[in-house]
């Protein structure tokens, strides 16, 4: 569950503790998640269903909740506005942020495929 960062953080942390949920502050929203549920686990599951190796995928992200996905893909790009956790987990940190950085990652992948 994602909640606006204007929500009561202390209350959300209390709820997370009572229901054995993980609390994550991505810098953009507060997230309450079931332990073991992550973007990396989801991508691995989707790849398996599709018959692909997760390393065949490319990921672009900007926050802590993207790090698990970065760990399983073949190439991971953090946009310039990424938090420290995402930037450390990425293979590449882009010069531009937000959608401009995402477009730069897509161009890099497209150009690499043309080689």
Automatic annotation (TrEMBL):
One annotated Gene Ontology cellular component of this protein: cytosol
Gene Ontology terms for molecular function: magnesium ion binding; phosphoglycolate phosphatase activity
Superkingdom classification of source: Archaea
Record carries keyword Hydrolase: yes
Catalytic class of the enzyme: hydrolase
Enzyme Commission (EC) number: 3.1.3.18
Lineage: Archaea, Methanobacteriati, Methanobacteriota, Stenosarchaea group, Halobacteria
UniProt-listed Pfam families: Hydrolase_3
Alphabetically ordered keywords of this record: Hydrolase
Protein name, entry field: Phosphoglycolate phosphatase
């Amino acid at each position: 569950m994602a909640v606006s960062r204007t929500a009561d953080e202390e209350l959300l942390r209390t709820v997370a503790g009572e229901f054995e949920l993980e609390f994550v502050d991505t810098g953009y929203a507060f997230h309450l998640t079931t332990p073991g549920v992550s973007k990396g686990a989801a991508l691995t599951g989707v790849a398996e269903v599709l018959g692909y190796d997760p390393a065949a995928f490319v990921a672009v992200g900007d926050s802590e909740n993207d790090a698990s996905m970065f760990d399983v893909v073949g190439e991971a790009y953090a946009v310039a506005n990424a938090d420290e956790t995402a930037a450390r987990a990425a293979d590449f940190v882009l010069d531009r942020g937000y959608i401009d950085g995402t477009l730069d990652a897509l161009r890099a992948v497209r150009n690499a495929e043309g080689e």
